[in-house]
């Protein structure tokens, strides 16, 4: 049930991004407060979190960051289950 809720939230975010893109934008400070400075730096280091410069501001997509966070959670779940169940 929780996976369906997370999936529907990501779909709703994608709709918001398409219909009103400015509501999807997060400033660098907002992104760091919402997702954590270390996590943002790690995602940028690996080239996963893309940012755009508008004037003097650095903007991130809330939808993209949510998708990255959800993918990271799924990866951790799969890795944990593989280690727990052992090789087959």
Task: Write a brief caption for the model.
Helices cover 72% and strands 14% of the residues.
Characterization of this structure:
The protein is of the alpha+beta class and 88 residues long. Helix content is 72%, strand content 14%. It has one domain (2-85). The protein has helices at residues 2-19, 21-24, 28-35, 37-45, 62-85; strands at 25-27, 51-54, 57-61. A three-stranded antiparallel beta sheet has the order 1-3-2. The longest helix is centred in the last third of the chain and has 24 residues, at 62-85.
How much is the average pLDDT?
Answer: 84
In helices, the fraction of residues equals over 70%
Distance between the termini: 28 Å
- Order of strands, widest sheet: 1-3-2
Order of H and E elements: HHEHHEEH
Describe this protein with a few key phrases.
5 helices, alpha+beta, 3-stranded antiparallel β-sheet, about 90 residues
Could you give the topology of this structure?
Blueprint: H1 2-19, H2 21-24, E1 25-27, H3 28-35, H4 37-45, E2 51-54, E3 57-61, H5 62-85
Antiparallel strand pairs: 1-3, 2-3
Helix pairs in contact: 1-5, 3-4
């Amino acid at each position: 049930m929780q996976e369906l809720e997370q999936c529907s939230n990501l779909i709703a975010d994608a709709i918001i991004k398409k219909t009103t893109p400015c509501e999807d934008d997060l400033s660098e400070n907002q992104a760091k407060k919402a997702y954590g400075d270390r996590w943002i730096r790690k995602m940028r280091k690996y080239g996963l979190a893309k940012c755009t410069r508008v004037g003097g501001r650095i903007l991130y997509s809330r939808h993209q960051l949510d998708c990255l966070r959800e993918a990271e959670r799924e990866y951790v779940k799969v890795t944990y289950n593989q280690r727990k169940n052992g090789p087959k």
